[in-house]
What we know:
- The structure is a single chain.
- The chain has helices spanning 3-9, 11-20, 44-72, 75-101, 116-144, 151-173, 180-209, 213-241, 251-259, 294-309, 323-326, and strands at 264-276, 279-288, 313-320, 348-349.
- The protein is elongated, with a radius of gyration of 27 Å.
- It is of the alpha+beta class.
- It has eleven helices and four strands; from the N terminus they run αααααααααββαβαβ.
Amino acid sequence: MGAHDHAAQDPGTRDHADHGEQSGDGHGHGHDHGPGGHSHGVAADADRRWLTLALTLIGCFMAVEVVVAFLAGSLALLSDAAHMLTDAASIVLALIAMRLAARPARGGFTYGLKRAEILSAQANGLTLLLLAAWLAYEAVRRLLDPPDVEGGLVLVTALAGIAVNVAAAWCISKANRTSLNVEGAYQHILNDLFAFIGTAVAGLIVLTTGFVQADAIATLVVVVLMVKAGYGLVRDSGRIFLEAAPAHLDPDAVGDRLVAHAPVTEVHDLHIWTITSGEAALSAHILVEPEGDCHAVRRELELLLGKEYGIGHTTLQVDHVQEALLSVGRPGQGAGDPHCASPHGPVHHEGPHSH
Protein backbone atom coordinates (compact mmCIF):
# COMPACT_ATOMS: atom_id res chain seq x y z
CA MET A 1 0.00 0.00 0.00
CA GLY A 2 1.32 3.54 0.59
CA ALA A 3 3.71 4.41 -2.19
CA HIS A 4 2.34 1.76 -4.55
CA ASP A 5 -1.29 2.83 -4.15
CA HIS A 6 -0.19 6.42 -4.51
CA ALA A 7 1.58 5.54 -7.75
CA ALA A 8 -1.74 4.42 -9.20
CA GLN A 9 -3.34 7.73 -8.26
CA ASP A 10 -0.42 10.00 -9.11
CA PRO A 11 2.20 8.49 -11.41
CA GLY A 12 4.18 11.70 -11.36
CA THR A 13 4.84 11.41 -7.65
CA ARG A 14 5.82 7.75 -7.95
CA ASP A 15 8.21 8.75 -10.71
CA HIS A 16 9.64 11.32 -8.34
CA ALA A 17 10.07 8.74 -5.58
CA ASP A 18 11.82 6.36 -7.96
CA HIS A 19 14.01 9.18 -9.19
CA GLY A 20 14.86 10.10 -5.62
CA GLU A 21 16.28 6.63 -5.04
CA GLN A 22 18.91 7.17 -7.70
CA SER A 23 22.08 9.22 -7.61
CA GLY A 24 20.70 12.03 -9.72
CA ASP A 25 18.94 15.04 -8.29
CA GLY A 26 17.28 12.86 -5.66
CA HIS A 27 20.53 12.82 -3.74
CA GLY A 28 20.95 16.56 -3.70
CA HIS A 29 24.77 16.65 -3.53
CA GLY A 30 25.54 19.86 -1.74
CA HIS A 31 29.30 19.83 -2.35
CA ASP A 32 31.95 18.38 -4.59
CA HIS A 33 33.81 15.45 -3.12
CA GLY A 34 36.31 15.24 -5.94
CA PRO A 35 37.99 12.05 -7.03
CA GLY A 36 39.06 11.11 -3.57
CA GLY A 37 35.88 11.93 -1.70
CA HIS A 38 37.34 15.07 -0.15
CA SER A 39 35.90 18.48 0.37
CA HIS A 40 37.24 21.80 1.62
CA GLY A 41 39.35 22.32 -1.51
CA VAL A 42 42.09 19.77 -0.71
CA ALA A 43 42.84 17.37 -3.57
CA ALA A 44 43.46 13.71 -2.86
CA ASP A 45 46.74 13.86 -4.82
CA ALA A 46 47.93 16.70 -2.59
CA ASP A 47 46.98 14.66 0.49
CA ARG A 48 49.07 11.74 -0.75
CA ARG A 49 52.08 13.95 -1.46
CA TRP A 50 52.06 15.48 2.02
CA LEU A 51 51.57 12.12 3.70
CA THR A 52 54.38 10.54 1.67
CA LEU A 53 56.76 13.34 2.66
CA ALA A 54 55.88 12.86 6.33
CA LEU A 55 56.39 9.10 5.98
CA THR A 56 59.87 9.62 4.53
CA LEU A 57 60.91 11.92 7.39
CA ILE A 58 59.63 9.53 10.04
CA GLY A 59 61.08 6.38 8.49
CA CYS A 60 64.60 7.80 8.20
CA PHE A 61 64.69 9.17 11.73
CA MET A 62 63.13 6.06 13.27
CA ALA A 63 65.95 3.84 12.00
CA VAL A 64 68.54 6.08 13.68
CA GLU A 65 66.56 6.36 16.91
CA VAL A 66 66.29 2.60 17.46
CA VAL A 67 70.09 2.31 17.44
CA VAL A 68 70.51 5.26 19.81
CA ALA A 69 67.82 3.95 22.19
CA PHE A 70 69.73 0.70 22.74
CA LEU A 71 73.05 2.54 23.15
CA ALA A 72 71.55 4.92 25.71
CA GLY A 73 69.47 2.28 27.53
CA SER A 74 66.44 4.60 27.36
CA LEU A 75 62.88 3.26 27.46
CA ALA A 76 61.57 6.71 26.60
CA LEU A 77 63.62 6.74 23.39
CA LEU A 78 62.67 3.16 22.59
CA SER A 79 59.01 3.99 23.20
CA ASP A 80 59.37 7.00 20.90
CA ALA A 81 60.86 4.75 18.23
CA ALA A 82 58.02 2.25 18.66
CA HIS A 83 55.56 5.09 18.45
CA MET A 84 57.24 6.31 15.27
CA LEU A 85 56.83 2.82 13.84
CA THR A 86 53.08 3.08 14.42
CA ASP A 87 53.22 6.59 12.92
CA ALA A 88 54.72 5.13 9.76
CA ALA A 89 52.18 2.30 9.73
CA SER A 90 49.33 4.77 10.22
CA ILE A 91 50.48 6.85 7.26
CA VAL A 92 50.88 3.75 5.07
CA LEU A 93 47.33 2.72 6.04
CA ALA A 94 46.09 6.21 5.27
CA LEU A 95 47.70 6.17 1.83
CA ILE A 96 46.25 2.74 1.01
CA ALA A 97 42.82 3.79 2.28
CA MET A 98 42.89 6.92 0.13
CA ARG A 99 43.48 4.87 -3.00
CA LEU A 100 40.71 2.43 -2.09
CA ALA A 101 38.28 5.24 -1.25
CA ALA A 102 38.92 6.88 -4.61
CA ARG A 103 37.66 3.83 -6.51
CA PRO A 104 34.19 4.25 -8.04
CA ALA A 105 31.20 2.38 -6.67
CA ARG A 106 30.55 -0.91 -8.43
CA GLY A 107 29.06 -4.32 -7.78
CA GLY A 108 27.98 -4.94 -4.21
CA PHE A 109 29.91 -1.89 -2.91
CA THR A 110 27.26 0.71 -3.65
CA TYR A 111 29.17 3.43 -1.79
CA GLY A 112 32.48 2.33 -3.27
CA LEU A 113 35.22 1.74 -0.68
CA LYS A 114 34.91 5.09 1.06
CA ARG A 115 34.83 3.44 4.47
CA ALA A 116 38.33 2.07 3.95
CA GLU A 117 39.37 5.43 5.41
CA ILE A 118 37.33 4.73 8.53
CA LEU A 119 38.88 1.27 8.86
CA SER A 120 42.28 2.94 8.72
CA ALA A 121 41.28 5.47 11.39
CA GLN A 122 40.03 2.70 13.68
CA ALA A 123 43.24 0.72 13.17
CA ASN A 124 45.23 3.84 14.11
CA GLY A 125 43.18 4.28 17.27
CA LEU A 126 43.56 0.64 18.30
CA THR A 127 47.33 0.67 17.76
CA LEU A 128 47.61 3.77 19.94
CA LEU A 129 45.70 2.04 22.74
CA LEU A 130 47.67 -1.22 22.47
CA LEU A 131 50.99 0.58 22.37
CA ALA A 132 49.94 2.70 25.36
CA ALA A 133 49.18 -0.46 27.38
CA TRP A 134 52.61 -1.96 26.61
CA LEU A 135 54.46 1.27 27.40
CA ALA A 136 52.55 1.72 30.66
CA TYR A 137 53.60 -1.77 31.76
CA GLU A 138 57.25 -1.16 30.86
CA ALA A 139 57.27 2.27 32.51
CA VAL A 140 55.91 0.93 35.81
CA ARG A 141 58.45 -1.90 35.72
CA ARG A 142 61.27 0.61 35.22
CA LEU A 143 60.00 2.82 38.01
CA LEU A 144 60.36 -0.12 40.39
CA ASP A 145 63.71 -1.24 38.98
CA PRO A 146 65.30 1.68 37.09
CA PRO A 147 68.17 0.86 34.71
CA ASP A 148 71.08 3.17 33.88
CA VAL A 149 70.19 5.84 31.32
CA GLU A 150 72.55 8.02 29.25
CA GLY A 151 70.89 11.38 29.81
CA GLY A 152 73.01 13.34 27.32
CA LEU A 153 72.38 10.94 24.45
CA VAL A 154 68.67 10.86 25.26
CA LEU A 155 68.46 14.67 25.30
CA VAL A 156 70.23 15.18 21.96
CA THR A 157 68.19 12.48 20.20
CA ALA A 158 64.92 13.77 21.63
CA LEU A 159 65.66 17.31 20.43
CA ALA A 160 66.32 15.96 16.94
CA GLY A 161 63.07 13.98 17.18
CA ILE A 162 61.14 17.12 18.07
CA ALA A 163 62.40 18.82 14.91
CA VAL A 164 61.50 15.82 12.72
CA ASN A 165 58.02 15.48 14.22
CA VAL A 166 57.30 19.20 13.90
CA ALA A 167 58.15 18.92 10.20
CA ALA A 168 56.02 15.74 9.80
CA ALA A 169 53.08 17.27 11.69
CA TRP A 170 53.28 20.35 9.47
CA CYS A 171 53.20 18.15 6.37
CA ILE A 172 50.09 16.29 7.51
CA SER A 173 48.40 19.50 8.65
CA LYS A 174 48.52 20.61 5.01
CA ALA A 175 46.38 17.59 4.06
CA ASN A 176 42.62 17.36 4.53
CA ARG A 177 42.19 16.79 8.28
CA THR A 178 38.40 16.69 7.99
CA SER A 179 39.08 13.10 6.91
CA LEU A 180 39.07 10.85 9.99
CA ASN A 181 41.71 8.81 8.18
CA VAL A 182 44.14 11.75 7.88
CA GLU A 183 43.24 12.89 11.39
CA GLY A 184 44.26 9.46 12.70
CA ALA A 185 47.70 9.77 11.13
CA TYR A 186 47.97 13.35 12.42
CA GLN A 187 47.13 12.28 15.97
CA HIS A 188 49.88 9.66 15.82
CA ILE A 189 52.42 12.31 14.79
CA LEU A 190 51.18 14.83 17.34
CA ASN A 191 51.41 12.31 20.17
CA ASP A 192 54.90 11.40 19.03
CA LEU A 193 55.86 15.07 19.17
CA PHE A 194 54.61 15.26 22.76
CA ALA A 195 56.52 12.09 23.52
CA PHE A 196 59.78 13.59 22.29
CA ILE A 197 59.21 16.73 24.32
CA GLY A 198 58.69 14.58 27.42
CA THR A 199 61.75 12.51 26.57
CA ALA A 200 63.88 15.66 26.16
CA VAL A 201 62.78 16.88 29.58
CA ALA A 202 63.51 13.46 31.07
CA GLY A 203 66.95 13.38 29.43
CA LEU A 204 67.75 16.80 30.84
CA ILE A 205 66.67 15.72 34.35
CA VAL A 206 68.73 12.54 34.16
CA LEU A 207 71.74 14.49 32.87
CA THR A 208 71.59 17.20 35.57
CA THR A 209 70.30 15.30 38.61
CA GLY A 210 70.88 11.60 37.95
CA PHE A 211 67.18 10.87 38.61
CA VAL A 212 66.82 8.00 36.13
CA GLN A 213 63.15 7.39 36.97
CA ALA A 214 62.37 10.56 35.01
CA ASP A 215 62.67 8.44 31.85
CA ALA A 216 59.80 6.17 32.92
CA ILE A 217 57.72 9.07 34.25
CA ALA A 218 57.97 10.81 30.87
CA THR A 219 56.74 7.61 29.24
CA LEU A 220 53.68 7.50 31.52
CA VAL A 221 52.77 11.08 30.62
CA VAL A 222 52.88 10.17 26.95
CA VAL A 223 50.75 7.07 27.65
CA VAL A 224 47.95 9.30 28.95
CA LEU A 225 48.04 11.37 25.74
CA MET A 226 48.05 8.23 23.60
CA VAL A 227 45.01 6.79 25.40
CA LYS A 228 43.11 10.06 24.91
CA ALA A 229 43.86 10.22 21.18
CA GLY A 230 43.32 6.48 20.61
CA TYR A 231 39.98 6.46 22.41
CA GLY A 232 38.76 9.42 20.36
CA LEU A 233 39.61 7.71 17.07
CA VAL A 234 38.02 4.39 18.07
CA ARG A 235 34.90 6.17 19.34
CA ASP A 236 34.43 8.30 16.21
CA SER A 237 35.11 5.48 13.76
CA GLY A 238 32.87 3.15 15.81
CA ARG A 239 29.95 5.59 15.50
CA ILE A 240 30.31 5.49 11.72
CA PHE A 241 30.47 1.69 11.57
CA LEU A 242 27.41 1.42 13.82
CA GLU A 243 25.48 3.76 11.50
CA ALA A 244 24.97 6.31 14.27
CA ALA A 245 23.97 9.84 13.36
CA PRO A 246 26.85 12.34 13.28
CA ALA A 247 27.63 13.46 16.82
CA HIS A 248 26.62 17.07 16.09
CA LEU A 249 23.17 16.13 14.74
CA ASP A 250 20.07 15.21 16.75
CA PRO A 251 17.78 13.07 14.54
CA ASP A 252 14.71 13.98 16.63
CA ALA A 253 15.40 17.68 16.13
CA VAL A 254 15.89 17.12 12.40
CA GLY A 255 12.62 15.19 12.19
CA ASP A 256 10.73 17.93 14.02
CA ARG A 257 12.29 20.53 11.71
CA LEU A 258 11.17 18.63 8.61
CA VAL A 259 7.60 18.12 9.82
CA ALA A 260 7.34 21.84 10.63
CA HIS A 261 7.79 22.61 6.93
CA ALA A 262 4.40 23.16 5.27
CA PRO A 263 2.66 21.20 3.79
CA VAL A 264 4.41 18.24 5.48
CA THR A 265 2.14 16.39 7.92
CA GLU A 266 4.35 13.49 9.01
CA VAL A 267 7.91 12.18 8.83
CA HIS A 268 8.82 8.58 9.63
CA ASP A 269 11.50 5.99 8.83
CA LEU A 270 14.01 8.79 9.33
CA HIS A 271 17.64 7.60 9.18
CA ILE A 272 20.78 9.73 9.43
CA TRP A 273 24.22 8.18 9.14
CA THR A 274 27.75 8.93 7.94
CA ILE A 275 29.11 7.34 4.76
CA THR A 276 32.67 8.45 5.48
CA SER A 277 34.32 11.49 7.06
CA GLY A 278 32.30 14.62 6.39
CA GLU A 279 29.68 12.86 4.25
CA ALA A 280 26.39 12.60 6.14
CA ALA A 281 23.40 10.92 4.52
CA LEU A 282 19.68 10.95 5.29
CA SER A 283 16.65 8.97 4.16
CA ALA A 284 13.06 9.44 5.22
CA HIS A 285 9.43 8.89 4.24
CA ILE A 286 7.64 12.24 4.01
CA LEU A 287 3.86 12.64 3.95
CA VAL A 288 2.33 15.88 2.65
CA GLU A 289 -1.20 17.24 2.51
CA PRO A 290 -3.33 16.00 -0.43
CA GLU A 291 -3.05 19.34 -2.22
CA GLY A 292 0.69 19.66 -1.59
CA ASP A 293 3.26 19.55 -4.39
CA CYS A 294 5.46 16.50 -3.69
CA HIS A 295 8.17 17.58 -6.11
CA ALA A 296 8.42 21.08 -4.66
CA VAL A 297 8.46 19.74 -1.09
CA ARG A 298 11.29 17.35 -1.91
CA ARG A 299 13.40 20.12 -3.45
CA GLU A 300 12.72 22.47 -0.55
CA LEU A 301 13.57 19.86 2.08
CA GLU A 302 16.79 18.92 0.28
CA LEU A 303 17.84 22.58 0.28
CA LEU A 304 16.88 22.90 3.94
CA LEU A 305 18.88 19.81 4.93
CA GLY A 306 21.94 21.00 3.03
CA LYS A 307 21.81 24.58 4.30
CA GLU A 308 20.87 24.02 7.96
CA TYR A 309 22.48 20.64 8.66
CA GLY A 310 25.13 20.18 5.98
CA ILE A 311 23.56 16.92 4.75
CA GLY A 312 24.31 16.63 1.05
CA HIS A 313 23.18 13.03 0.42
CA THR A 314 19.41 12.65 0.78
CA THR A 315 16.87 10.06 -0.32
CA LEU A 316 13.36 11.33 0.37
CA GLN A 317 10.25 9.34 -0.48
CA VAL A 318 7.48 11.93 -0.64
CA ASP A 319 3.81 10.84 -0.81
CA HIS A 320 0.44 12.49 -0.43
CA VAL A 321 -1.07 11.68 2.92
CA GLN A 322 -3.67 8.92 3.17
CA GLU A 323 -5.72 8.00 6.19
CA ALA A 324 -4.03 4.61 6.42
CA LEU A 325 -0.58 6.15 6.28
CA LEU A 326 -1.46 8.71 8.94
CA SER A 327 -1.48 5.89 11.48
CA VAL A 328 2.00 4.57 10.71
CA GLY A 329 3.85 3.66 13.88
CA ARG A 330 1.23 5.12 16.22
CA PRO A 331 -0.13 3.33 19.28
CA GLY A 332 -2.46 0.44 18.51
CA GLN A 333 -0.85 -0.47 15.20
CA GLY A 334 0.42 -4.03 14.96
CA ALA A 335 2.45 -6.09 12.53
CA GLY A 336 -0.19 -5.57 9.86
CA ASP A 337 0.66 -1.90 9.49
CA PRO A 338 -0.06 -0.80 5.90
CA HIS A 339 3.36 0.86 5.50
CA CYS A 340 5.67 -1.80 6.90
CA ALA A 341 5.64 -4.56 9.49
CA SER A 342 8.18 -2.83 11.69
CA PRO A 343 8.29 0.98 11.43
CA HIS A 344 11.78 2.34 12.04
CA GLY A 345 12.20 4.88 14.81
CA PRO A 346 9.83 7.55 16.07
CA VAL A 347 7.11 9.16 13.98
CA HIS A 348 7.25 12.93 13.70
CA HIS A 349 3.96 14.70 13.13
CA GLU A 350 2.30 18.01 13.86
CA GLY A 351 1.64 18.83 17.49
CA PRO A 352 3.20 17.32 20.64
CA HIS A 353 4.60 13.82 20.23
CA SER A 354 7.07 11.55 21.98
CA HIS A 355 10.48 10.59 20.62
